[in-house]
Amino acid sequence: MDLALWIAAGLLAAVALTGGISKTFVPKAKLAAAHGGEWTAGASVGFVKTLGVLELLAAVGLILPAIVGIAPVMVPVTAVCWVLLMIGAMITHGRLGQSELVVLNAVYLALAVFIAWGRFGPEPFVA
Questions:
Q1: Is Lipid metabolism given among the entry's keywords (predicted)?
Q2: Residue 78 and residue 61 in contact, taking contact as beta carbons nearer than 8 Å
Q3: Measured between alpha carbons, how far is 19 from 24 in angstroms, rounded to an integer?
């Protein structure tokens, strides 16, 4: 179970890192032209960059606290925050009729729920 939770956290951290880098460093016009990034056309640059920074923090929060052993409870807390982010993403993509992205966000949400459940419940990090 511990290995499955680490794999899930690693996958989700990779997703968060990729999304965070693109939202933080790719120009908004280029994001808006890409499939899945159409929502950025109606959002401010500051909002898009803020989401990007939050995703970068999520990538760090899903892995680093457990590795260094400092505040490892932040791993499941970060996973719960990711659940909230994915609910927002699902609503946004749903409004745009992008059902395939809603399903993809639901998969990311399920991974985050698994991590939160596992690390708050049966496999917490022991200090």
A1: no
A2: yes
A3: 8
Q: What is the CA radius of gyration of the chain?
A: 15
**5 contacts 118 by C-beta, under 8 angstroms:** yes
| Residue 16, both tokens | 């968060």
DSSP 11-68: HHHHHHHHHHHHHHHS-HHHHHHSTT-GGGGGS-HHHHHHHHHHHHHHHHHTTHHHHH
CB crowding 67-95: b at 16 or more within 10 Å, else e: eeeeebebbbbbbebbbebbeebbebbee
What are the domain boundaries of the chain?
2-120
Residue 125: pLDDT band (50, 70, 90) is confident
Angle CA 33–106–83, to nearest 5: 100
**Predicted TM-score (pTM) of this structure:** 0.93
d(Cα 70, Cα 22) in Å, to the nearest integer? 28
Q: How far apart are CA 50 and CA 23, in angstroms?
A: 8
